[in-house]
Amino acid sequence: MMIEDRINLAINWILASGIQAEDGGFNSWYDIENKSYKYKYSEITGYGLSTIAFLKNTLANDNILLEKANSAVRWLIDNAAHPCGGFKTRSYYSREDNNNIYSFDTGKIFSFDTGMVIKGLLDLYKLNKDQALLDISKKAAEFLINKMSKSNGLFYATYDPEMDKNTDSKEKWSSQSGSYHAKIAIPLFDLYEITKNKVFLDRAVSICDSALKLQKGDGRFISFSDTEDTHLHPHIYTAEGLIYLALKVDDEKIRSLYLDSTRKAVQWV
User: Fold this and answer.
1) Angle at 74 between CA 165 and CA 103, to 5 degrees
2) Which contacts of 57-64 are long-range, i.e. CB under 8 A and separated by 24 or more positions?
3) Is-above-0.90 flag for pTM?
């Protein structure tokens, strides 16, 4: 089978398998034993939206891609968006599977998930120039900058909307501040390129600078603040944010610094 055939199989799976639900939200994963999905969630819908926008940009004559993208946006706005500007995390299909920490009904808003939703919305905005997408993205980014920023340049991991309180927990790498939030620099920089508002550029750079302080001499990024252990997943997220800015910024000093850090991170892997 040729590589083009394999790519087309993957595209067809994204579009027709049901991984994107009928209402537009993307499911977590498909359980092949139970033949079911456990929940839809915002982060993966942001990734799905970015993927569809990319495919739309390369396969411009395929109208189904635009339909899929628009349905993902509607799901995010109608179901996941919170008045504060952030995006809620998971919509469970069954009460038995429901986890109150992540649930749309009772759960917290995660900085990382919100950042990845912004990225998806902006990827579609670059194609259709829909002002509403830009407005929603700016509101979400302002929520991150004004509500979720920490004095050390990192972001709080979560926000409890019922208590109006920022929270961090050492239970999981994803529930605490960390270098992986450098990936949020990607949509922040995209917003800067679109709006020319330097606030977004400065915050993108500051989160990456803060991430550098969490890199050990061997190249790995700390994932757990109490043990200084490293989880590969967030380690890669950090490298993504750093390399993106390194390839985008005009400042040669910043570019060199981020490239060097990314090289060390990849070498460690």
Assistant:
1) 35
2) 57/127, 64/15
3) yes
